[in-house]
Amino acid sequence: MLSGDRADLTVNAGYFAGNLRLPSNDNGPGILSSGLLGGDSTRGGWGTFLPGELFQITTSQHVERVNGSLAAGWRPVAQLNVRAVAGLDHTDQHDGQVQRPGEGPNANPAFSSVTQGRRRGSRFTGALTATGMFELSPTLSMRTTAGVHYFKNSVDLFDSAASVFGSGVSIREQRLRAVTSTFGLVLQQQVAWR
Q1: HEC profile for 37-77?
Q2: Per-residue pLDDT tens digits for 63-84
Q3: Which burial class, exposed, middle or buried, applies to 18 when counting CB atoms under 10 A from its CB (0-12, 13-18, 19+)?
Q4: Which of 101, 97, 91 is nearest to 116 (CA)?
Q5: Which residues of the chain fall below pLDDT 50?
Q6: At 31, which helix (H) or strand (E)?
Q7: Do 69 and 84 touch, CB atoms closer than 8 A?
Q8: What is the pTM of this model?
Q9: Domain ranges in the chain?
C-alpha cells in the first residue's frame, strides 16, 4: 500500500492450488446411498456395493485460482474524493473419474470408463466514483457521488466421457461458453441538516 496526503494505492494478489481424491458419491452408487442409507443385509449393511468396490473408481479434482485487485484514491482538494477499483478472479478446475477394466462395482473385465470435466472462469470488476462534499450554510451540507461500474463474467465448460464395454465404444463431448457483462451508472445525493 502506498499512501500520501492526496493519493493512495493498494495492490492485492492471491493464489490457491488444490488436488483432491474424492469418493464416488452424489446420486450414483456411492458411500452415502450404499452404506449410510442402505438397510441391513448379508453384506453387513452395505446396499449395492462394498466400500472397496467404490474406492476402485478413481475420482479426482484439481483447482487453481488466481485473484488480484488494484484500488486507487485521489483527493485533489478537500471537498473531492475520486476512487478507482479493479479486480480479477480466475479459476481453472479439472475433474476426472477413471474406472479400469475389472475394477469398481461389478468388476467386469470388459468394462472401463474415463470422464473429465474442465471449467475455466474469469470475473472482472471495475468501478470509478467521485464524491464531492459542499457546505451550503453552517447548518446545511450536501454530498454528491457519481460513478460507473463494470462487471464481466466468462465461463468455459468442457465435459467428455468415454466408455468401453466389450467391443463397443461410447464417446461423448460437450462444450459451453457463457459471457455476461453489466455496466451501471451510480448517482447518489445526500443532504444533511444540523
Answers
A1: CCCCCCCCCCCCCCHHHHCCCEEEEEEEEEEEEEEEEEEEE
A2: 999 999 999 999 999 999 999 9
A3: exposed
A4: 97
A5: none
A6: helix 31-31
A7: no
A8: 0.73
A9: 2-21+58-193
